[in-house]
Design goal:
The chain is mainly beta. Helix content is 12%, strand content 43%. The protein has 1 helix and 5 strands; from the N terminus they run ββββαβ.
């Protein structure tokens, strides 16, 4: 891959629903979502790790226990890996 392809950036939204994580970047967001997370990725160079930040920007007023159960079932929207650092933040 040529250096001109870097740095790479991407952003959008992941929504936790009863069916799992859904990527949808524009409204209307899924009606059955229980959480919405802003996804921001920066990959500075081919030899560097992707730097991903997931920020919880919205949570339904439904039971936090239900949200916890869905997160336990489906994990994070983007999983850490040897090639990717993931940082979690919260704005709600």
């Amino acid at each position: 891959m040529a250096d001109r392809d870097f740095p790479r950036t991407e952003s959008g939204y992941f929504h936790l629903t009863p069916q799992g994580w859904v990527r949808q970047d524009s409204r209307p967001f899924p009606e059955d979502r229980c959480e919405t997370w802003l996804y921001e990725m920066e990959w500075p160079h081919e030899d560097a790790k992707e730097q991903v930040t997931l920020t919880k920007v919205w949570a339904s007023s439904a039971s936090e226990t239900s949200n916890d159960a869905l997160r336990a079932r489906f994990g994070d929207a983007v999983a850490p890996s040897p090639a990717r650092n993931v940082k979690l933040e919260c704005r709600v």
